[in-house]
Automatic annotation (TrEMBL):
InterPro entries: TPR-like_helical_dom_sf (IPR011990). Gene3D superfamilies: Tetratricopeptide repeat domain. The lineage of its organism: Eukaryota, Viridiplantae, Streptophyta, Embryophyta, Tracheophyta. It comes from the Eukaryota. It comes from Oryza barthii. This is Pentatricopeptide repeat-containing protein.
Amino acid sequence: MSDDAIRRLLLAGVAPSNRLPPLTVKLLHARLLLHRAQRVFDEMPHPSTISWTALITAYMDAGDLREAASM
């Protein structure tokens, strides 16, 4: 699911619920958490190699290879 699709869902007031297909809920949740994780990482004064690797791995697990490669 693209970031644009997630934004549209959120702007429409859609929240993860049992009315959405489970995969959509899972992807939405994963993307939201990744954005939060990226924000925390970006605010770290001295991110560790472990933090960096964890974030890259999270992007790869979510299928966002472009973002993982840009790290």
